[in-house]
Write a structure and sequence with these properties.
single chain; mainly beta; Immunoglobulin-like; 6-stranded mixed beta sheet; 3-stranded antiparallel beta sheet; 9 strands; binds 2-acetamido-2-deoxy-beta-D-glucopyranose
Length: about 150
């Protein structure tokens, strides 16, 4: 067993729920189909995001198009208002996806969601999109989260 697998097993033994798919809403994935969304650690849903921590996001999707590029956009929806949420790396091709993206191929998009300490402790909906060359969504998912101190 490698170090990383060992670490994950330890987390599981410590009571973290591992790789439980997150319930999400599809908000218009027209160039792809979402298979699964993983956020970790997220032992209970909606995911509680602690200020000052980083969360890993893993979206498994199948593309229905070819695309040379992919660009991620993240928004927080607070009381119906969509607010851009900066992520360290927008380029999907540097987030676990091997580009060019092929048709009918399944990919694991992996990124981190940093939760800054200055964020307010509120419930919100995270909208995560990955756009192809034509600015169409390879995936668009929405999932509720709760920011806690
Ligand atoms: C992302 O999820 C897929 C499907 O469960 C899994 O095969 C892959 O190992 C995960 N990647 C990471 C970094 O957790």
């Amino acid at each position: 067993m490698d170090v990383r697998a060992g670490f994950i097993v330890s987390l599981c033994l410590m009571g973290f729920t591992c790789a439980v798919p997150v319930k999400f809403i599809d908000c218009g994935s027209c160039s792809g189909k979402v298979v699964m969304v993983d956020i970790s650690p997220c032992p209970n849903q909606p995911c509680q995001l602690h200020k000052g921590q980083s969360y890993s996001v893993n979206v498994t999707f199948t593309s229905t198009v070819e695309s040379k590029t992919s660009k991620a956009l993240v928004h927080g929806i607070i009381a119906g208002v969509s607010i851009p949420f900066p992520i360290p790396k927008e380029d999907g091709c540097q987030s676990g996806i091997q580009c060019p993206i092929q048709k009918q191929q399944t990919y694991h998009y992996q990124n981190t969601l940093p939760v800054k300490s200055e964020y307010p402790a509120i419930k919100l909906v995270v909208e995560w999109e990955l756009r192809d060359d034509n600015k169409q969504d390879l995936f668009c998912i929405r999932f509720p989260v709760q920011i806690v101190s």
